[in-house]
Amino acid sequence: xxxxxxxxxxxxxxxxxxxxxxxxxxxxxxxxxxxxxxxxxxxxxxxxxxxxxxxxxxxxxxxxxxxxxxxxxxxxxxxxxxxxxxxxxxxxxxxxxxxxxxxxxxxxxxxxxxxxxxxxxxxxxxxxxxxxxxxxxxxxxxxxxxxxxx
Amino acid sequence: xxxxxxxxxxxxxxxxxxxxxxxxxxxxxxxxxxxxxxxxxxxxxxxxxxxxxxxxxxxxxxxxxxxxxxxxxxxxxxxxxxxxxxxxxxxxxxxxxxxxxxxxxxxxxxxxxxxxxxxxxxxxxxxxxxxxxxxxxxxxxxxxxxxxxxxxxxxxxxxxxxxxxxxxxxxxxxxxxxxxxxxxxxxxxxxxxxxxxxxxxxxxxxxxxxxxxxxxxxxxxxxxxxxxxxxxxxxxxxxxxxxxxxxxxxxxxxxxxxxxxxxxxxxxxxxxxxxxxxxxxxxxxxxxxxxxxxxxxxxxxxxxxxxxxxxxxxxxxxxxxxxxxxxxxxxxxxxxxxxxxxxxxxxxxxxxxxxxxxxxxxxxxxxxxxxxxxxxxxxxxxxxxxxxxxxxxxxxxxxxxxxxxxxxxxxxxxxxxxxxxxxxxxxxxxxxxxxxxxxxxxxxxxxxxxxxxxxxxxxxxxxxxxxxxxxxxxxxxxxxxxxxxxxxxxxxxxxxxxxxxxxxxxxxxxxxxxxxxxxxxxxxxxxxxxxxxxxxxxxxxxxxxxxxxxxxxxxxxxxxxxxxxxxxxxxxxxxxxxxxxxxxxxxxxxxxxxxxxxxxxxxxxxxxxxxxxxxxxxxxxxxxxxxxxxxxxxxxxxxxxxxxxxxxxxxxxxxxxxxxxxxxxxxxxxxxxxxxxxxxxxxxxxxxxxxxxxxxxxxxxxxxxxxxxxxxxxxxxxxxxxxxxxxxxxxxxxxxxxxxxxxxxxxxxxxxxxxxxxxxxxxxxxxxxxxxxxxxxxxxxxxxxx
Lengths: 150, 786
What we know:
Chain A is α+β, with helices and mostly antiparallel strands. Chain A has 6 helices and 5 strands, in the order ββαββαβαααα. Chain B contains 20 helices and 31 strands.
């Protein structure tokens, strides 16, 4: 039986190993912070971390995640005080807010490997995450701010 | 203005008075008092902390279904401990309205925002007033009732305090969540009663009549106009705890998706679910009858629902399903052929909607005629959250949770579809992951309710996939706008002829006759604000072959694109600066008089009484000047860069945008800078107005460059964000500067959610022309120049 760690908790899974992680965390673990936006890996709303790296959970199967550690937005920080979360609030990034968990997880993954990304590096890392409300200017600003440690 | 003069006379004398020089360009001077000179300066002597009697004014809110409500007993509760709960009754889809309206109540009643809690109202318009959150109407219609609500509550608290102290109410003044006792000189005595101590007595008092209410003066505002309040859901959003439609969980709940016909009007002939039912986790398969009588309104399309333990199993089940669909008369719908047809129609005279002067004579006498035709494809709203609803229908009662823009309209239709009384239906409103008009149509909720009923009471979460969203929307219409402009031998514009050909939204609600209705031709078509002697606006016939609906800013998208591009084209022809020429074409400062300007009798002014929200040319020209000045209009730019400008009045607000474009060596169109100015009257929440305007530039860029829906054999050709493209961070308007016009208003508020969108595309097209000499007339324009 494959097992994986989700937000620090070990989970055993006996169902279809091809099930995307997205539906496992949402429908089976009721961790609803991770959002369904496209189901095709093209919008980024479902972004989670797999061993610390941002992945699209709609394109990552449970088999892919077996033996690995998954972090969702609920597990990014214990108290909601991750530098990215703080920066997001400081800049008042969200409008509808639906894509923001994915954006935050993407940004946190970028900053974990690159503390001070250039503008171009931010654009490159964040271009897979769509925000239909159009918060890009503030997302960009918040990532820069979080890079500075907030 | 009159309201301020009246206030001065009534205001209690105080030791100090603030002289306040107010730039009064508008209300009070409207309706011909001012004539053509525009701006006047009025000196207003405002006693510090004076409260004002504001004359109630009519808005379109009174004519909306179930109107407006301002009763504090409906919207406010105060606990003995002093916590204030305010009901927020409009849907939150990103505009911030869920925060902004309660903010108005809290400010007016002198509540401490940190002690305010919000409760989202379920769909119940007889109780709360209209809840249909679209048309950029929430603040426009509810600023006044919410100020009334807060002022009444404040006066009730003051009256309760007066009774407790045994003094006249004029000695009691609410501030900072307390009522203060004043001495006979109206100075503070230091004695205070907290709201919590007064709550019970205050709530037992009769609600003061509207005519007796006194409102805070602007210098007393603590929240309104300050821009310091963050949206109430900000923290929850950043930690993944904000609740959207798909985040509802009920005991025993199943998950479902529906297979729908690819062509509108196809019915299920037969289906084979054998393979579907073998998929682990699939529970059952049910046919949902569609609504096939025309007009369909928001009726469900019909199809086969797959019910499962997870959304994943339901989607797999749908993939395994075989369905034989009936033919539909809409199967011939083809974008290329239809566009050619619309274009041919636009070349011929159509139904005349506005006629001013003698346009035929003007064109006959013209030295030059500039003719241009602009095309727009269908678009889909594609909010990040696909449609979703949770329904629990059992024992003749229905409870629905949905991210819906119009919960009461949905509730009534659900009751009808389930054949149960409307009292037995509850519609809870979750946060909406974007809406843009799509979620004011509740077909997805009807599907969920009907399915739960079929399941005999099992709660079900019915999820639309992105493909469903792209292929089964109520689409923004496709359009051809043809504009001819006559110029005489003095290079003066003497004639304007505009033809619009476009399937109408009205086809969703009534038998389609191929013509547009007032709401559509009131959006930037018959209301062009130009000082041209001879104007004719005509509408050619175009039948709908798919569901047409509204999309953020609706017909203004194609109208502003055509009109503002055409003005720039004429300016170029005449060798004029496009900004100066636009201002000149708008002409003198005035309120346009629809009666003497040939407007149709059924002219629709965004539902507003014209006297309260007229088309004011001074405000329109002002936003143009402000945007241009702040953008550095006229400065020299490097090669392959340019600036374009466009201005548009929509939803009773005025917006101008200057787009600065830079064309890469490979032809990629980039926008390093956008400068926008908005005059929306009283701006309650400037921080959210700014965010709406920033977002409008991004959506404007999607509309301008990327997003198009096309049909082949009646079916939509796009299916997800990889072929229905929207703006991404890889190419977005890098810096959007927003200038909000200051105004003496404290009541009349124009729309904010939508008006930012229309000027972007024409400003960009005009910028591309300035940079390269290429004129792009078809939306979407594509993100690369050939």
